[in-house]
Amino acid sequence: MTNKNKFWCLFISILLSNMLFLCNFYSFAEEKMNHILIINSQNMSIPYTHDVVRGIYSNLRGKNNIIHVENMDIQIKPDHKYFDTLYNLYKYKFKNYNFDIIIATDEDAYYFFEKYGDNLFENSPILFCGINEPSILNKIQSNKRFYVVEQSIDIEKTLNLANKIHPNNTIFIPVDPKLLSSHYMKLLNNQKKYYKDKGVDILIYYESNINKVLDKMNTLKPDLTLITLTEFKTDNNDNYYMNNLIQFASNKKNIPSYSFWSSMISTGIIGGSLCDAYDLGNTSGRFALKIMKNPKYDVHKVSNKNKYMFDYNQLTKFNIPINNLPLGSKIKNKPSNFYSISKDMIYAFAVYIILLLILVIFILLVNINKIKKLQKILKSSTEDYKNLIEFLPFGILVHDKGNILFANSAFLKLFRYKDLDSIRNTSLYNYIHKDFHEKIKERLEDQQKNIYSPYIEELGITSDGELIDIEVCAYPSSDDKNYTVAVVNDLIEKRKAEKLKNKILEEEKRLKQALEYDKLKTEFFSNLSHELKTPLNLIFSITQLIESNLKNDQLVCTSSNTSHHINILKQNCYRMLRLVNNLIDITKLDCGYFNIELQNHNIVSLVENITLSVSEYIKNKQISLIFDTNVEEKIMAVDPNAIERIILNLLSNAIKFTDSGDSIIVDLLIEEEYVTISIKDTGIGIPKDKLKIIFDRFRQVDKSLTRNREGSGIGLSLVKSLIDMHNGSIDVKSDYGYGSEFIIKLPVTTVDNINKVDSVYVKDKYIEKINIEFSDIYSI
Ligand code: ADP
To answer: Taking the CB of the first residue and of the last residue of the chain, which one, N or C, has fewer CB atoms within 10 A?
Structure first.
């Protein structure tokens, strides 16, 4: 609920409660209060009086009635003086009261009002209750202010009952003659006569003193039935109440007792046709309400009927069967069971159940309405989801531990099935290549543990047996662990895209390489022109110098001068020759015309002789050139010219990139299958990032035209091609700034029918070749 709604709810409830309060207040203010006076002849400790007042209260309590209760306690002082005193007391006490009704219980109260009524509470109607004396009843009815609820004691019925239950007993009826009206005395005597004729002995014992009554009772035979009708007096003139006599008879003497008032139940009587004091009070209360409502109410007398009532405990004690009792009898103190629950309670319970049912039906109706609405929403959202799943571009598969329950259109299309029925209730494994079954098993176990299975690539099998690349992820359904929802992606398009991407990348790479190669070529040609121009310039300058000297007849031709000029001319011719040779070889290699001629040679002496020649050549350069080998001879198939080109090229580079004081080591390691030639220098070294490219054609570490060392960048490429032709390999290691090592590995093979040519060191054999290969190195 929003704050705004909460505020309105609070506001409306406060408003309603205020309105209700105001309504109550005004009705309370407007309604007249009734003053009621209850005057009891006796006091409330007497069960009869107490029950009558309770009955009155049950109808009059509340309803704007203010009830005053006065107990006359007439038995304490039953004389005129006491009546006078009470009169004066009431007169004084209720001077300012105008009672709407006075309810007087029992006959003594009537006598009081008969005497003082004209001067006391003159304007109030008086309702007498529990009156049974016919003479009084007549008087009451003749007075317009007086009303009466008649309650006669039923001597005839109770005597009949007592006789019926205990037919052999003498019926003992002790009576205080002062307290029993002549009317009832007459009735009693009539009954006595009636039963005497029937042979039943009824003993009516008129006595006020209880002790004498008890003495009398002791003299009688034990087969006795007691019927109590009045109270008695003790020797001290104190009241001896009826209930005491009954208790004494029942408990001490085991004499069954009957009486006429329901208030005696539980004191020891078996029962009787009883006047129910509470009932009497209740009838009186209702009657009083009618009189108050209509002060001119013209019905002045109502009767309250007696009821057969019994005490369950006494019935049990005297072994009296319940079916011996008159029909409709009420049994008190019965141990409660379901059937003993009062009718009222059953009615109340029934009403409660009905109300509850109505409430439940109402709630159900409201909820059914809500459920219908929710069902409608659910149905439409289910439809939406269904459509969504059907139109999704990737396959959806629902399965229960591998048993297929549902597949969407995309899945069926991918696996080439015409409808769901073709695959429903079949195993998931049927559609996946067996190489993936183990993995699927693991993933199904994960799903049972509510673990999501991420995307993996698998091979699917279509209806026509074709294998297709798919990608699958699966997750357990949120409400039931048994179901798994798998999402299946077709990888065919993905693969095509990947291939295309790779092709593009490759093309890009090739283009880049081509561009780079083109750039290299451009650089090479600029470098080549430089390489050609430098020796050409020198040759040209020397030629010009000689020409000028000749022109001016200044031919100062010293042998050292001429030799120097010839050296320069020669070296630059060698340089150009090397360049042209290299270019021709490269062109040959590219066209596939370059062939090597394999002959069986001693590789050790071949390399050693070249090294020795170079050593001779560079002896002024202060570079130490060392040759070492583990064996002295190893005959194998090589092209000696190619090996010479290789070693000379590597040595020329080693010399070119070393300074005086450095050293170069040529080391041969002869093994069974391979010969390893290492040419190691302590020169400038090669940066790490350039190590891979130096064997590529036109590659140089320093490509600037102002570089310190001359070169075309073809040499190592040519070396590598020549080694490749021997099925060998070349590798380079370098510590930049500290030197480089070129390692050649040649397989040991021999060629048939070609005789071994022994390589003998001839000092000048390599001079020409060295001159050409070393032509870049000017300082020599
Ligand atoms: P060039 O004719 O320019 O020397 P090469 O193909 O023989 O061409 O060598 C390529 C490059 O490799 C050289 O320019 C140089 O930068 C590097 N290089 C070759 N050998 C050595 C070495 N021993 N020490 C240092 N750098 C070297």
So the answer is: N
